[in-house]
Amino acid sequence: MNPDVLVIGGGNAALCAALMAREAGASVLLLEAAPRDWRGGNSSHTRNLRCMHDAPQDVLVEAYPEEEYWQDLLKVTGGRTDEHLARLVIRHSAGCRPWMRGHGVHFQPPLSGALHVARTNAFFMGGGKALVNAYYRSAEARGVQVRYESPVDRLEIENGRFVAAHCTVNGRPERIVARSCVLAAGGFESNRDWLREAWGRNARGEWPSDNFLIRGTAYNQGVLLRHMLDEQGAERIGDPTQAHMVAIDARAPLYDGGICTRIDCVSLGVVLNREGERFYDEGEDFWPKRYAIWGRLVAQQPGQIGYSIIDSQAIGRFMPPVFPGVVADTLPELAARLGLPVERFMQTLDAYNAACRAGSFDHTALDDCHTEGLVPPKTHWARPIVRAPFYGYALRPGVTFTYLGLRTDDTAAVRFGASASPNLFVAGEMMAGNVLGQGYTAGVGMSIGTAFGRIAGHNAAQAVLQRPPQGLAALIAEDRQAQGDVHAVA
């Protein structure tokens, strides 16, 4: 039997869509390209959801109002965002947790002394893998059909209306007809050829992207995204070189290294390129607001490699990565062990140490420890690197997900020029570029995926019922009514 709603993808956004469509009474089939053991896409590697709240709420302390959330997002994107859609995502984040709990997701108690994330982010108990597993259990219990190892390579679309999807099931081609469809199949970060195409060659004729590592799934090849952009004429959004890109341990695996490969001591020391030179302000802002710029910064350095250097004063102040750092009793010895030019390394460290101005060091606040007369400066948490032993971590760009995607509106409909599809919707990484033109702040990807996954699934069911699609604001209003929230939706 052909389903009412076909959901293509297997991560957070796809699962939210499938659950919402099923709650509305539609029959749902979800196609996941990965095997069951690797289901969930990049969502399996997530930890939290960035949430707006005007007062303390269950697992969130203090307040994180809409305007502060918006300013945080505006700062990291440099204004490359659709404010209307961004603010709707922000407002949705205030009320989605009860719905998530209703599908088996649990949140852990507030984290204390962790760079304000206890105020801004709700952490999943058991991480993203537990969240994904909870959603799959809930979906299957509610009658959602799930097929694994079922990649979709093309769609049939007539005058902007979805007709059918062509996929491979058990090695055989299959055509699946549905009355509406949600696209949530991720970006193209795992497609090495497409990364090469986007980033091109450098002046030496090398391919910079060959040095990138993929933090998440190997199954986000972007096949369906390319089909929609190049063959179906869907309206695009975003720059193919922009991505959630983090500086991770250079020894990380090519795929699926996840959170444990991230190097979180950057703001506690200095970062050098392979020539032994600093290239950016390591103390510009709190780490959760700045960690995602460092992958791109390293990608712009010679050989796409960097080195985070700290001393023993930093130990215990950051989440330790899975691999231990290179350790030495002296700075020249550390430089030699890292393969860096010792003389230039020492010139850089000596200049940095001399430029540090004493203050009240506090890594949980924007403190007054800074440099003077140094380019680039270090704005906060600048302490001389003088206490042995010394540690170094080689860094590579780690791509989480790409921002090139499909343009949409607050109904999550796929757009073809001036018109929106009546029965084809998009969510998650395939449309995140509408909100994220560049940059990132911790947890916002899950906010986008949850918000647009839910509205896409809801409207896919509305299309089956031959009702007009509803905007995200309507869903926010329903969430607030369910919580007894009397605040009006702007």
From TrEMBL:
SUPFAM superfamilies: FAD/NAD(P)-binding domain, Succinate dehydrogenase/fumarate reductase flavoprotein, catalytic domain. InterPro entries: CobZ, FAD-dep_OxRdtase_2_FAD-bd, FAD-oxidoreductase_2, FAD/NAD-bd_sf, Succ_DH/fumarate_Rdtase_cat_sf. It comes from Xenophilus arseniciresistens. GO terms for molecular function: oxidoreductase activity. Gene3D superfamilies: FAD/NAD(P)-binding domain, Succinate dehydrogenase/fumarate reductase flavoprotein, catalytic domain. Its cofactor is FAD. This is FAD-dependent tricarballylate dehydrogenase TcuA. Keywords: FAD, Flavoprotein, Oxidoreductase.
